# Entry
Amino acid sequence: MVDATLASTMKFAILGTGTVGTTIANKLLALGHDVMLGSRTKDNAKALEWHKGSAASGRAHVGTFADAAAFGEVVFNCTLGSATIEALSLAGAGNLEGKVLIDTSNPLDFSKGMPPSLFTSSEDSLGERVQKAFASARVVKAFNTMSAPLMVEPQQLADGQHDAFICGNDAAAKEQVQSLLRSFGWKHIIDLGDITAARATEHYLPLWLRLWGACKTHMFSVHVVRS
Amino acid sequence: MVDATLASTMKFAILGTGTVGTTIANKLLALGHDVMLGSRTKDNAKALEWHKGSAASGRAHVGTFADAAAFGEVVFNCTLGSATIEALSLAGAGNLEGKVLIDTSNPLDFSKGMPPSLFTSSEDSLGERVQKAFASARVVKAFNTMSAPLMVEPQQLADGQHDAFICGNDAAAKEQVQSLLRSFGWKHIIDLGDITAARATEHYLPLWLRLWGACKTHMFSVHVVRS
# Structure
C-alpha cells in the first residue's frame, strides 16, 4: 500500500530502457501506477518490446525522453551514468521543473575494461552534477546500491533485512521517495543527508562490484547493524 | 584460540600510536602475544603512556618504526594514510621483507575539512601503493572498514553478525590474517581478491563516514546478506 505522502496512483516517467528502467517500470505498473518509458527515439526497440509485454495493463506508454518527462509527476533517471546529463538535457529542464527526480545512476567508466572505474572524484558525484544542471528539479539519489531485482522486491533477500540509502536537498521529496521505497517493500531506509552524500553511495560501487565477484551472485545487499 | 596457521604466541609490530594502533596492540597482548609499538621516535609520549599501562603484561615494548618492524614477525600499519609510505620507509624495506604486513590505513585527506576526501582515484589505492613500494612484504589490506573497538571485539555488535573484508596477493598471508581475525572474534570474513580490491574497501570510506553521521555512533558495521 502506498502511504499518505504518495497518491495511490501517479504518473511516472522512466528515462532509460535497460534492466533497471524496465524492472522499475514493471513494478510501478504492478502497483497500479501509469508509466511512460522514455528513450532517445520514439521507436526504440527495447521500449517497444517492453510496451508490447505491458500493453494489457492499459497504463504503459512509450515516448521520447521529453515525452516521458512531460508525462511523469515523478521522474526516474535510469540511464547509464555516462549518458545521464545528456539524457536529462533531452528530457528538458522545463519538463523536470519542481518534480521529484530519482537518480539511480552511477558514474561508472567502462572504457578501460572491467571492473569499471568511477569518472568522479570523492569531492564530486553524479547526483550533485544532476542537481546542479537541473536546479529546479528535486533530486533524490536512490536505488544505486543494489541489483535491479532487489530494488523492487527487497523481501526476496533475508526477508528484507538489508538497507536502501537515499539523499537529497529537498526533505519533502525524500519523504515521497521513502514512501515509494516502502511501497516496493523496503523496511530499512537510511537518509544520508543532502545531495553531497551521493559521493558516498556512488563510491560504494567499487565495493559492490567486488562483492558481486566474491558472492558469485548479484542477489546480495548490505545491512547496516548498529548498537 | 588462535588456530593452526598462526603460532599460539607471536611477535607483532604495531606501527602507529593512535587509537587503532593501541587498540590492536592491547588485543594482541590480551591474547598472549608479544607486541612492540613503533613510532617516529623512541620517546613518543603516546607510546610511553601505552607502555606504562601495559607493562604488567611483560610483553609490551616500544621503539622506533624500524625497531618495531625488526621485532615483529607480523607487522600492522596503523598510521594515518597520509603518513603511511613515509612511516613504512622509516620502518625499512629490509625489516618488512617476507613478512605479513597488515595495512589498516585509509587514503583520507583531511586538509579540506570534514568529511575528508580520498587522495586516491578509483584506479588506485593505498594498499597497492604499499605493496608496490615494499614489494617483498606480503601486504594484506584489512581492518580499514570499521571503528577500532569493533576491529578487536566484533561480537560487541549484533552478536558478530557483520563482515570484515580482506584482500592481498599472497594466499598464505591472507590465511594468517583470517586466523588472526577469527582469534579476535570475527565470524564473517570476505576475501575480495588481490590487492587491487583495496580500491573497493578504501572507497567505502565515504559511505562509512556518512553512516557514522546517520547512525550517530561509530558502533555500526555492515553485514553482507546474500541468497
